[in-house]
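User: Working on a comparison across species. This one is DUF4294 domain-containing protein from Bacteroides vicugnae. Can you predict its structure so I can line it up against the others?
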Amino acid sequence: MTLFATVCCSLHLQAQEKQSINGYLVPMCIYNGDTIPSIQLPTVYIFKPLKFKNEKERQEYYRLIRNVKKVYPISKEINQAIIETYEYLQTLPNEKARQKHIKRVEKGLKDQYTARMKKLSFAQGKLLIKLVDRQSNQTSYELVKAFMGPFKAGFYQAFAALFGASLKKEYDPQGEDKLTERVVLMVENGQI
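Assistant: Here's the predicted structure for DUF4294 domain-containing protein from Bacteroides vicugnae:
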């Protein structure tokens, strides 16, 4: 009955205000003359339990969880920096000012992230490349090329290739990265 009232409240919202209930400030709505709390419940993801073939597979899964927990926040920060940089670049009057700003941003990012990147393992670095693609819908190569030009993008791609990685690697949540997507959704939601 309460679920019905909550749904109806959101459909027939007449007035909304915040009131305090037991010390918590929650949104309220009036439904058929009654004031009831209107609370947004978080999405809970339910997945089929995993079945591991052996102990090694189980350990790899828990390693993936640990790596996602370490790398996912970095990918979110990088995406935010990309958005802010792009928006600021749009306000600059000419190409010279844009290039000057990009050089400052590049130096700032190196100062901020070099120490953290050095602490990442090879697997975490490869995962970061994919998660940046997941967050921004562009590969790391495309991002470097857009902001710093094709020469630097080619240089960084060649450097990554020396270590067996690729900045052109795309995130595939329905295929190769299905398990990673599951872990990311659960980490985002605080389920693991």
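For your comparison, note: DSSP finds seven helices and three strands in the chain.

User: Helpful, thanks.
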